[in-house]
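User: Hey, quick favor. My workstation is busy. Could you predict this chain's structure for me?
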Amino acid sequence: VDWFIPNDNDDGYEDRNVQVGDTINFTWAGSFPHNVYIHPSQGCSQDGAIVVGATSSNGDSSYTFQSSDVGKMTFACDVGAHCELGQILTVTVEPPPSPCIEISKEKFYWKTKKNGKVVNKNCIWL
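Assistant: No problem, here it is.
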């Protein structure tokens, strides 16, 4: 994601869909500092915000989605009024693709047959 404050000629950031195991990358450069925070409020409120990328003029940060993230997540810049000016992105996190089955908050497996027996294999994210 090219991370910047949208201008009048730009509609801002379109919502994105990702799956558990995907990684999102934010990059920015220039004279204005930026950062990246997860906003549990799903808006510009900084209550409970979690830092993903520290404030800097030239930066990049990434976040890999976990099973506990399934649903909507909001990323925003908390520098000044950048969020209110449109530097905010909503991401819908979907469960991993079949045939993976969640067995705990962080583990997934798929079933296969080996010598006629059903065995569980860990999913590998590509």
